[in-house]
Amino acid sequence: MSRFGVIALATMAALITSCGGESAPRTAGDSAAPRIVGMPIDSATTAPNVFRVRFETSKGPFVVESHRDWAPRGVDRFYQLVQSQYFDNVRFFRVVSSFMAQFGMHGDPKVNAAWEKMPLQDDSVRESNRRGYLTFAMRSDPNTRTNQLFINIVNNRNLDEMGFAPIGRVVEGLAVIDSLYADYGDAYPNGNGPDQTRIRAEGNAYLERDYPKLDFIRTARLVTDSATATDTRDSSAKKR
Question: How do beta strands 90-91 and 216-222 pair?
C-alpha cells in the first residue's frame, strides 16, 4: 500500500464527528434574548442553486462555489452556517498535507453544541472528492453530518464510495489551502494535533493556548452580485 493509502486509512476516522454539548439553539420566536453570532437562525432556509462564499483567513482569501444539485441537504446547511456567521474565528484544527484540511468546530462550545444537535439526512454522492472540493465530515453511522467540513488537498476519490458527498469547490485561492499550517500533524489520537473532545468542551481557549500556530477563518460571507461587479471593476482599473 502507498504511503498516502496508509495515511488516508489511518486518518479516515477523524473525518467523523461525535455529538455532545447541552445547549439548544434559540427558537425563531424568542425575540427577547439577543442572538448569539453563529447560532442557528432558521433550519428551513433553502440555499440558492449556485452561490459563492468568500473566506478571509489568516493566510489570505479563498472562494468556494457551492451547487445545490450536488448535495441539497448539505448545501442548505452550509448556506445556513454562512448566514449565521458561524465560521468567524473558526480554526483549521486538522490539516494533513497529503489528505485534507478540516474545520468547523466553533470557538464557543455553546454554539458548536447547538449545531451538533441538528444532524442532517445523508445526500447521494454526485460529485467526486477531488482536489479543492468541499465536503462535510461525518461519523460512520448514517445521517450524522452537522457542522464540520473539509477541503480535499489531494484527490480523495476513495471517499466517494464511503458516502462523503461534496457540496462545492474552491474556485479562487486554492494556494491558500495548500499553505495552511500542517506541522501539528493529524488530530489526536492519530497524531499530535488537537483533541476534538477538548475543542468541544473548551473551544478556542484550548486551541489558542495549546495550538497557537493553527490558521483560522476571520470571516466567511456570501459573495453578492454587486460585490463581484465591484471586484471586477477594481481589477480592470488596476490594469489601466
Answer: antiparallel
- Cα torsion through 97, 100, 101, 102, rounded to 10: -140
What is the Cα–Cα distance from 149 to 186, expressed in whole angstroms? 15
The structure's pTM equals 0.82
Q: Where do the DSSP E strands lie in the chain? A: 50-57, 60-67, 90-91, 94-96, 100-103, 133-136, 149-152, 166-172, 216-222
What's residue 42's pLDDT?
A: 73
- pLDDT tens readout for residues 63-84: 999 999 999 999 999 999 999 9
CATH number at residue 64: 2.40.100.10
Task: Enter the C-alpha cell of residue 175.
Answer: 494556494
CB 35 within 8 A of CB 26: yes
Mean pLDDT of 160-170: 98
Structural domain that includes position 179: 3-18+40-234
User: What pLDDT digit, counting tens, does each position of 16-35 carry?
Assistant: 444 333 333 444 444 445 66
Residue 112 lies in a domain: yes
Q: pLDDT of 213-237, one tens digit each?
A: 999 999 999 998 644 433 433 333 3
Phi-psi region of 3 (alpha: psi -120 to 50; beta: other; left: phi over 0): alpha
Confidence label for 104 from pLDDT (cuts 50, 70 and 90)? very high
Contact (CB, 8 A) for 97 and 84:
no
Q: Which of 228, 220, 127, 227 is nearest to 176 (CA)?
A: 220
- Identify which of 1, 212, 202 has the alpha carbon closest to the alpha carbon of residue 110: 202
In a domain, 225, yes or no: yes
